[in-house]
Amino acid sequence: MIQIRDFDEICKTIMSEIADISSYLLSPTEEHIVKKLKDKTDIILVAVIPSGESAATGVDNYKDINTTYFFVVKKEDPTNSTQKSELDDYEKTQNCIESVKKYLIEKKSSCQFLRDVDINSFHIDPEYRIFGGFCGWSLSFDFKSNGY
């Protein structure tokens, strides 16, 4: 599996490269994310600690396939929500998740972690009232890392 501190550093870099994303958090579970996001109102990058699966083709060729999710979300304000404000929030967060995807693709050749990102595994979904009232988008994908 990828080392957790290496993954955290990559996520911090991604957050710092996208102007509209104002904060970032890393979490293993949705329950933990809900607690950390409670008072946030800006656009946030949430990264889920990757899971890992063995992909050995032999004793000398051992890799792990890691699967992770990135979420770009913004707190929904149900008291002041209109069709226009909801659409505006989805548009802003969609632009951010597309920027995250673009970053992963563009840095593929120059970053150790991103070199083995499987761009064919990218899957983006809209998210509604996730993490206790946030809306936005999720991006799931796989990447390889050196095993043991």
Keywords:
alpha+beta; 6-stranded mixed beta sheet; Alpha-Beta Plaits; 3 helices; 148 residues
Low-confidence stretches: none
- The portion of residues forming beta strands comes to 35-45%
Summing up helix and strand content along with how strands pair, one would put the structural category as alpha+beta
How many domains is the backbone divided into? 1
What gyration radius follows from the Cα positions, in whole Å?
16 Å
**Tally of separate helices:** 3
**Spatial shape:** elongated
CATH architecture: 2-Layer Sandwich
**What is the CATH superfamily label?**
Phage minor tail protein U
- The portion of residues assigned to helices is 25-40%
Question: Can you summarize the main beta sheet?
Answer: 6 strands, mixed
Mean pLDDT score? 88
SSE ordering: HEHEEEHEE
Kindly report the CATH topology. Alpha-Beta Plaits
Total E-strand runs: 6
CATH C-level category:
Alpha Beta
Distance between the termini: 8 Å
Please explain how this structure is put together.
- 31% of the residues lie in helices and 36% in strands.
- The chain has a single domain, classed as Alpha-Beta Plaits.
- Strands 1, 2, 3, 4, 5 and 6 form a six-stranded mixed sheet that branches.
- It is of the alpha+beta class and 148 residues long.
- The N and C termini lie close together (8 Å).
